[in-house]
Amino acid sequence: MRLRDAFRSRRGDDDPDEGSGPVDVSAIEGDESESASFQPRTDGDYIGEVGSAGRLRFLPGGRVQYRPDGAAGSEPWPGEYTPAGRFSVQQRFERPITFTVLSSSADAFTARRTDTRDRSADTLGYRFEPPTAG
Length: 134
What we know:
Blueprint: H1 3-11, H2 25-28, E1 45-48, E2 55-59, E3 63-67, E4 77-81, E5 86-89, E6 97-104, E7 108-115, E8 120-129
Antiparallel strand pairs: 1-2, 1-8, 2-3, 3-4, 4-5, 5-6, 6-7, 7-8
């Protein structure tokens, strides 16, 4: 008998293999479910519908660039996105900001943005804006 099994039997846990199997993630997650297939447009920008949401540009090959509002002259924050709708962007020498797409349509998506610097989280909407001619 292993030491761990001995402790479990003292606590009243009869099944030594209980809890060692796969965890049902759907029971842990909240009401918000993630997008199953995220395919953003790469021919323009996604503009945040709230003033502090920023601007996102998706590039071919799974790359993304983020520009916070008010940072027009600064370098965009690079990152990578997945077809599952998850991506992180990171300013040089800073902690990343992570996005999880909750729902998407042809020209818009809603995402949960988590700033790992202060652990704040917001649900934000982004709408597609094609490039302007000129």
